[in-house]
Amino acid sequence: MAKQLPKTDVVLVGVGWVGGIIASELTKKGKKVVGIERGKERSTKDFMMAHDELRYAERKGMMQDLSKETVTFRHNTKQRALPYREWGSFLIGDGLGGSGMHWNGQTYRFLPYDFEIYSKTVERYGKGKIPKGMTIQDWGITYKELEPYFDKFDAMAGVSGEPNPLPDAPQVKYPNPPMKETPVTELFKQAAKDLGYHPYHMPSCNLSQQYTNPDGITRSACQYCGFCERFGCEYGAKADPVVTVLPVAKETGNFEVRTHSVVRKVLHKDGKATGVLYVDTRTGEEYIQPAEVVVVSAYQMNNIKLLLNSKLGTPYDPATGRGVIGKNYAYQTYLGNAYGFFDEKEYNIFAGAGALGAQIDDFNGDFFDHTDMDFLHGATIHITHLGDRPIANNHVPEGTPSWGREFKDKSVHYANRTMVIKAQGASMPWQDNYIDLDPTYRDAFGDPLLRMTFNWKDQDRKLMEFMGGKAAEIMKKMGATHVNQGGKNIKDYDIRNYQSTHNTGGVIMGSDPETSALNNYLQMWDCENVFVPGASAFAHNSGYNPTNTVGALAYRAAEGIEKYLSKGGSLV
């Protein structure tokens, strides 16, 4: 029988960026917060001299253990879903800080267009522009309303960046200057300018200089070691929850973290949550943590799973389009890349940082006319100087044999002569792309696994074909001898090949309880003391990385929780 613990003001299910921000904000106001985290405790000491590509990048040392919990996958409802046995398309983090520990640090605000995508599309092109089965909808909040929360995230994390020179783009004043200019970013920028585009430096949560944030947290500048994505930062130069918000929460004395603990259910009665049921994975003991407010702050997939297993909210039905939990799952289209091979000059590709790069937004959002396009939205087209590690990076021109002497010779020759321009495209939601519970497979505790039903649509294929051409155009202007152009002949979504960990939707926000699970404070319509911030709240995915928007919504949710604790009821 589960042991009941003393009641707290707020219990967090997951302690990553969302949980850390909410813990920091509420504990500073005197609220008692308990954070329940499935993984282990972490600090920068865990990553000292840990530049081990095999352990972290290839064997996924910071990721969720798929032998205990995974998702099942199928392309359509006629197929039987099978378990995701080995990390491929995306990587869900495990441990204190969650996926906020192993990210690259690329830090974008979603566009004003994103938050009102349905209204803006209809206003400019008419309803006929939206294809049958595409379920885009407005988010129930505007960029202007969210702007102060973006500012708070930028100040806390110390974003390094410069204004976007594209006309009509939001002008953001970042707390730190952009990261270094390199021969790679300089070459990209000049080529883009020559083609009439508007390049600028990628906004980064890797510090360009030493910085002290408004909470008094001081962090050092990036060392450009090249070990960002899939790694923790030993210097603390890359903003993550462990070096920014969690120390602030702990310092108040109002915050307690319980690691190695998996929440199985949100307990609720008569439209209100009473707490959570969780298991200590070291002992197998079950506990009930009562709370005034439950914050479901885990990774996007795990948020959906917990609500479905807790029977909170109406499960989505793809046949009718009704229901809200599992609706509007979106990923990201990242297939329109261009690989350039340079024979005349060698570059230091091995050095860099996860958010060291340059980009254009000329073909992102609705900055360009879609009247004659077979798709909506767009992509950021960027080049990154990440620091190509030797195991995972071995690019050769098209037509090269995949083994033998020629393959080896070209692998060596192009080791520091290959660049990649990437097109990170938006992902629109569709009625038959969704998440539900698998009827067959269960996790280590006997609870149903999530089932993902997802495939590319013509929207995605047309978008990536267009962006692949634009990326190749810039690469050729940069002077590449050979260019491998992506975005051609895209077939089914392949869960085996990594793209990004930018999974969104499933517990979306909006202004109507019939079509959304949350209001604009991320409060559940169906259970007033449950808040579900995070990328699961996104009604679609943009052409940007999601973290900055996740952070802004977390600050918004923290404000809402504080209001709820003082007066209760629905906040909108």
Automatic annotation (TrEMBL):
Gene3D superfamilies: FAD/NAD(P)-binding domain
Transmembrane segments: none
GO MF, any single term: flavin adenine dinucleotide binding
Taxonomy, superkingdom: Bacteria
Keywords, comma-separated and alphabetical: FAD, Flavoprotein, Oxidoreductase
Domain Glucose-methanol-choline oxidoreductase C-terminal: 431-554
Keyword flag Flavoprotein: yes
Residues covered by the Glucose-methanol-choline oxidoreductase N-terminal domain: 220-328
InterPro entries the UniProt entry points to: FAD/NAD-bd_sf (IPR036188), GMC_OxRdtase_N (IPR000172), GMC_OxRtase_C (IPR007867)
Family: Belongs to the GMC oxidoreductase family.
Name the UniProt record assigns to this protein: Gluconate 2-dehydrogenase alpha chain
Organism of provenance: Mesobacillus foraminis
